Automatic annotation (TrEMBL):
UniProt cross-references to Pfam families, sorted A to Z: DUF2062
Protein name: DUF2062 domain-containing protein
Transmembrane regions listed in the UniProt entry: 23-51
InterPro entries, alphabetized: DUF2062
Upper lineage: Bacteria, Pseudomonadati, Pseudomonadota, Gammaproteobacteria, Oceanospirillales
UniProt keywords, alphabetically: Membrane, Transmembrane, Transmembrane helix
Domain DUF2062 residues, every copy: 8-59
Entry keyword Membrane: yes
Amino acid sequence: MESGPAHQWSWDLATMQAEFASIWWPLLLGSLVCGIAFSLLGYVTISRFWIWHVGRSWRKRVQLRSKRKHNSH
């Protein structure tokens, strides 16, 4: 069931330029939005992971020092 004539696609330079001319603005805007969104997501994720990792390391260090202190007496 066809709704209309098939769109003919050719790989010549004029067709590629015409297609790119019609999509460059949405492509640029979408790329910028995705770049900003994913960079913010990555920054927040790494920042939270770093805070969690440092807190966990600090708690382990406090526990280890506490055990050493009690074992030395």
